[in-house]
# Entry
Amino acid sequence: MRAVEAYLTAYGPATPAHLKYWLGEGLGARRKRIRGWIAALGERLVEVDVEGDAEYVLREDLEELVSTGASAAVRLLPAYDQWLLGPGTADAHIVPPDQRALVSRGANVVIVGGVVSGTWTLTNDELTTSWFARGQRPAPEAVTAEIARLASILDRHIEWSAR
# Structure
């Protein structure tokens, strides 16, 4: 049950399929056991609608979730980042289905507003972005700001080249 709580705290809202993916395939818990853990949380779980899908969130996180506005933030995530691995690359709300294989194989991804919208590579001091045809394209200044953040983390100069 604590594993379900921890997962929902980190990655919620989430479906039972998300929990099965993370706890079942990732940690080897059986489907029946996971269903039991979900049921044991009872009233502590609230069902919310995420673009037509019923997903669970912990009741104590609901108010913060509802009061948080949508974000247009741009983030450069490295291959196999936990932000993506938690819900899994099969989550169509996060990874466009036609890009799943690319992301699953370990592409560095550009997140725009919580959705994978492209990839990036860094060669020497040049960062190149490639945008998905159907992905949301951020304002250039948002990408520049995120590249500056990455350059600060890496303590090096980085130039941007968009494709």
